[in-house]
Fold this sequence. Notes:
By secondary structure, this protein is mainly alpha-helical. The chain is 67% helix and 5% strand. The chain has a domain of 51 residues. Strands 1-2 form a two-stranded antiparallel ribbon. Keywords: Membrane, Transmembrane, Transmembrane helix.
Amino acid sequence: MAFPACVQCGTRQNPCRCKVVGPTLGFVAFLITGIIEWPVGAVVYIFKHAKGRRIMGHPARHVYPKVSRSIPI
């Protein structure tokens, strides 16, 4: 089984200007929250469209960026 590795270059958060750990952990956190929140958001979307969209977009808008930015390497 291959583990996904995300690389972000051109950042000024560390001396080598490349990040591997932060984006990779951000991707893993995105997948875990997506598995949980997307089915919940789909059910909520049936009754409340705006709330369902917010729930389904939460992993991409909030989880991935926060985890990726919190680890500077």
